[in-house]
What does this fold into?
Amino acid sequence: MSGHTEDEGDERLAAEGEVALARLAIDSGDLTHAADHLGDAILADPQLPELHEALAELCAAAGGPAAARELFPLDGQVYLGTAVCRAHVEAAAGDWDAAVGLLASAIQYEPARPWAHAAWLAREDLPGLVDPDAVAQAVARATGALPDPLPAEPAEAVRPFHDFVQAVLARHGDHVLLLAMTSGLTRRLGDTARAVELAQRAHRSAPGYLPAVMLGNALRADGRPEQALAVWEAELARVAPDGDDPSSYLAVDVAELYGTLGRPLEGLAWLDRVLAAEPGHPKAGPARYGLLHALDGDPAHLLGLADHHRAHPEHEYAQELLERLSSREPWLGLVSGATEATVNVLHQVLAASDTTRDTEVECTASTLEPPSSVLAVRLALPRSTVGYQAVGEPDPRLPLTGPTTRIWVWDGTSPRPAVAPPSPRSAELVRSTAEIFWPTVPAAYDHAVRLAGLPLDDLLGVLVHPPMPREDELGRALLAHQPELWVRAVQVFACLGIAHHRTDQPWEGSERWRVLRDLLLGPEDWVVEAAGFALVAIGWTQPQTRADVAALLQQRLHHAARARRTRVVTILRSLAALVLVAPWTSDEDRELARHLTAREDAADAEAASQEGQGPERDQEQPEADEPDAPEPEEPRPGRLRRLFGRG
It folds into this structure.
């Protein structure tokens, strides 16, 4: 709250400074520069009283508001501050339609700013002075880009505009376009019942495409989706969708509403009809992937969305849908969690009210765990120690193949970094780049391009010498409650940085391929998962690498499945998830991944049902009925020539 107050204070100071400069310019007769300063001032603080006084002084100096219009031109590229000042000048000149339209444009571009908190907009006589056609067009302009529903801050900023529109509607209650557009604005402000009422009036007066669309939207928002379907399907029966006709977009809405109601098959029929008329429809193709995903949850449909957007970057809906369906899904939209006993103990200690960074904890685990879990403990509790009593078989300290890029060495069961810490500059860049959430897999890959120029030794160093979390709200929360997520995020983005290393080298035999392969097939650790995700991200963004990535993931998954027969493999569920979000892997590997995940879930559920027993007790039992995981052939590099760096 205090930061918000400081920001407001800074904005007011900036606005006051611009107003002072504007008044100096007015006094010197330089009205053009005065107008520029007032445009800057109104962006900083639209409600500053001195600003509006100075604007009146500028109008007077120009010979009146009508003459002052030319100081705020609207031709060419229009600056937002210029448009808002022009709105106030038009109001002073009595051109209310132009004033309202310009104010609506400002709301369209920055809805959270209090543009509508203008004294002239609240005039009691204003609703009788405006043309309802112009107001309806203004509402359409303001509403089109608004979120639905509006968050609290922009809702408060927009409300005076809404109140004005309602007052106009009270005088022109039979104006169909105004009724329909006001329904959309009212819906976004949360009054869905009123939105339905307005749209129904419009639809009764003039049944047609726009009133039907607005009525369906209002009914859907009001929790009446079946009624919305009836309205929309009746309209589509009247005007059958044909290619890029506007009704084809309504057909997509119908299809997706069926998906929301748990009836995606019925929705697919509508999309197939649209795509038969126009195969390249910008919404129907992506929507079809979305409904297929609703049917079976297969990430292959999300990969299809990514491939579609890469082939058709102008189809923004594919990206929007991919983000929505990836949100908060392990590896698709966030780093997968950790399950080690060491981490569970760490959470218990951090939950204690008397825990500080000086708290000393001696944690002893029965069996060796991924060494990165020690990094998480020491990140939050640097004076703590972690020990292990035994090493399971097969030995998790050994790489699957050799020679490898080594980042860990062991003194018995005690791990220590095998590489030097990164330079302070590199560590800080990784610190500012790493995230626990990302919009989509390709977005995570693209975001990491910032790390492309870092030395490889530094990217390897940060894997085992992670920097502290950022000093923001999320960073403090991670350090206090789940430091392991930060360690894993750092490792993920360091590996994504490696994925961007020396992209001038063709993929086959490249240094980035070699290092990520070594890390994926290295000693059992969280870094294995991070390298696996980096390879998956390369596969998502560069289809020609998918065969190589599939072979490497197969080798790691099958090794983990065999090891799971005789000991705990804490990264197994996460590895299985990585295989599942790489849908180009074989059907057999994806089925194995699903089976392993189900086994881990069943083991956790059984352990949770036994009072006083954790997951480890059940997990440590041999599993004779685990499906065979045959030794795969040594992965063969594909014949790839295309450079894939996008930085």
